[in-house]
Amino acid sequence: MRFATINGLPGVIVDGPEGPVQTAAFEIEGDVIRALYVVRNPDKLRHVATASAPHESGRE
Predict the structure, then answer these.
(1) pTM of the prediction?
(2) What whole-number distance in Å separates Cα of residue 10 and Cα of residue 37?
(3) How many helices (H) and strands (E) does the chain have?
(4) What Rg do the C-alpha atoms of the chain give, in angstroms?
(5) Which residues are CB-neighbours of 8 under 8 A, at least 6 positions away?
(6) In degrees to the nearest 10, what's the CA dihedral of 47, 1, 11, 58?
(7) How far apart are CA 23 and CA 26, in angstroms?
(8) CA distances in angstroms from 52 to 2, 5, 17, 27, 32, listed in the order given
(9) N- to C-terminal Cα distance for the chain?
């Protein structure tokens, strides 16, 4: 799992052996999560696979 900005929202990308398997974006208002947007459709995740992965150390 790695942190990312997804469609302008804070979120995470869940990676599997073959690449991304899920994204989750959080719509936050104040200190409350108002909505959670999860994508698992492989066709919609293709562009995520081409995005840069985090550095080996996990820090950027």
Answers:
(1) 0.76
(2) 11
(3) 1, 4
(4) 12
(5) none
(6) -100
(7) 10
(8) 11, 12, 16, 23, 29
(9) 15
Per-residue pLDDT tens digits for 34-60 = 999 999 999 999 888 666 454 444 443
What gap in Å lies between CA 32 and CA 56, rounded to an integer? 32
**What is d(CA 36, CA 5) in angstroms, rounded to the nearest whole number?**
13
Q: Of the candidates 25, 20, 26, which has an alpha carbon nearest to the alpha carbon of residue 48?
A: 20
Written as one letter, the residue type at 2 is: R
- Alpha carbon 41 to its chain centroid, in Å, reads 13
Tokens for 25, please give them: 């974006």
